[in-house]
């Protein structure tokens, strides 16, 4: 079985961008559905889906459905045929086609990104970006530091809530009260900015500089399989595009009369 | 980029922490968007879009160096991707485009002025660039002109209010806690206090 975790994160990022760019350029539903199905299939065989990340997809699915019906109702197309109506809204066949391709585009983008995040360790991604994309170590370590802060942010939040309770902030008149979100966000950010400053001082004290040649506790290499993975993505996408161009389905930017 | 703009390590670490914290907020914004979307349809997206520009505005308001608005947006996108966002790695493209919109406005003032008007305009700058991106990426060209007009108007207002005004409020709130004493915003606050 293909172990996605072993593939270089940068390779996965590139593949994900390829899928993204192609799906933004495709404007017909048949090609889009093929790309979508391949993505779902790939996600299933790599066991990328779980309850939590599918739940994150729900708002996006609603947006996709919104794009579907709004385009079916109001898209600006040449000689549409009305296929149904709901009150004052008329749905057109060509609008529906536009809506379907946009709906599947949004879903494809969502699914492909879930496959990426489900199979990528944040630390590996950052180390790989330093090695393969020459990301500045200062920024890379900054992001890693910020990630270390995330678990302690929950503890900070509990502390802030306790402080509010001691000061009896809940029983104030409503017009004296600050918004609940704002009341928690400001102290939380302030604590973390203070912490960040301390970390920066500590790093400087240990001789950390922005553009230094340094070694890392773990090195992420670019292997042959990573090249194959990216090439395979390109090959599959090209295969789908050429198949649908051969069948005469493909509508990309050239034949698209939108603007 | 870093040496040229004079970012210190402290600026970078604080920027990263702000970026990731706002990344968490941005993911929370998805559920706000879902509600707006359910009530108003895709126009709801334009109403709440300003949420996704706050990182640029607040970070630029605090640190006040060239490139900060752009960097904050990219780092927030990074936070989003690492935590898992449904919008996908596409957020990097979106973030870069929004960041450029904000940064352009700050560039016009040559990174000197940070008042409410400039910050609101920066939010609106991001509205304009992000709208152009969405227009191409989500195929808005198929919508009639009147609806596009409504969408861009809502997005401009959202950018000015949710990003510009709210971003400034967050910055001011932080300055009041004294945590920004070593940043330009905190120093400006301290000078004002001495004058009073």
Outline of this structure?
The complex is a heterodimer of chains A (259) and B (196). Chain A has 259 residues and is mainly α.
* Rg over CA atoms of chain A: 25 Å
Helix content of chain A: 55-70%
Oligomeric state: heterodimer
Tally of domains of chain B: 1
Query: Quick one: how many beta strands of chain B?
Result: 0
* Gross morphology of chain B: globular
Q: Using the CA coordinates, give the radius of gyration of chain B.
A: 17 Å
Helix content of chain B: over 70%
Can you describe this structure?
- The complex is a heterodimer of chains A (259) and B (196).
- With 259 residues, chain A is mainly α.
- Chain A has helices at 9-25, 29-45, 51-55, 58-74, 93-118, 122-133, 137-166, 180-205, 224-246, and strands at 82-86, 89-92.
- Chain A has two domains: 4-123 and 221-247, no CATH class; 137-205, no CATH class.
- Chain A contains nine helices and two strands.
- Chain A has a two-stranded antiparallel sheet with strand order 1-2.
- Chain A is flat and about 65 Å long.
- By secondary structure, chain B is mostly helical.
- Chain B has one domain.
- Chain B contains nine helices and no strands.
- In chain B, helix 2 packs across helix 5.
- The radius of gyration of chain B is 17 Å and the shape is globular.
- The mean pLDDT of chain B is 87.
- At the A-B interface, helix 1, helix 4, helix 5, helix 7 and helix 8 of A face helix 2, helix 5 and helix 8 of B.
SSE topology sketch:
The complex is a heterodimer of chains A (259) and B (196).
Chain A: H1 9-25, H2 29-45, H3 51-55, H4 58-74, E1 82-86, E2 89-92, H5 93-118, H6 122-133, H7 137-166, H8 180-205, H9 224-246
Antiparallel strand pairs in A: 1-2
Helix pairs in contact in A: 1-5, 1-9, 2-5, 2-9, 4-5, 6-7, 7-8
Chain B: H1 2-5, H2 9-40, H3 43-48, H4 54-63, H5 68-83, H6 90-108, H7 116-137, H8 145-177, H9 184-195
Helix pairs in contact in B: 2-4, 2-5, 4-5, 4-8, 5-6, 6-7, 7-8
